[in-house]
Design a protein that fits this description.
Elements (H helix, E strand, L loop, with lengths): L1 H13 L18 E4 L5 E6 L3 E7 L11 E9 L2 E9 L4 E5 L7 E10 L2 E10 L1
Antiparallel strand pairs: 1-2, 2-3, 3-6, 4-5, 4-7, 5-6, 7-8
């Protein structure tokens, strides 16, 4: 009996932290990838060859106005890193232009300010 309890406890400790998040992520509204950031917001990243667009939802999956958002993205493409400053766009979006086109494997780390508080999110994708 104790062995089963110990096994269950180890399973919980080793479970991904997303299992303890705010449930299932919302479906991407703009065709991007959705993750939960360090401050428990839902972030959707849409990457095109020439730029990035970020959409931010609160923990209840409601849009946060872009007037309350700011930040930057550090993008690693083909072994080269570039920083993209993100500026407020329409609705709940931030956007920025890439210095070089994004093709192949891309890793993006967002450093955001949401309602004056810092938040971070990480994305890995292929284009």
């Amino acid at each position: 009996m104790k062995l089963h309890i110990l096994a269950a406890a180890c399973g919980l400790l080793l479970a991904p932290t997303g299992a303890f998040a705010h449930g299932e992520p919302p479906a991407p509204s703009h065709g991007g990838q959705v993750v939960e950031d360090s401050s428990e917001h839902w972030i959707e990243l849409v990457a095109s060859a020439g730029g990035l667009t970020v959409y931010v939802l609160d923990e209840g999956k409601k849009p946060i106005p872009s007037t309350q958002l700011g930040g930057k993205a550090t993008v690693l493409v083909g072994g080269k890193s570039q920083v993209v400053m993100l500026t407020p766009g329409p609705g709940n979006s931030l956007g920025g232009k890439l210095a070089a086109p994004a093709t192949g494997k891309m890793t993006t780390v967002l450093s955001l300010t949401v309602s004056g508080k810092p938040a971070q999110a990480r994305f890995a994708s292929t284009h």
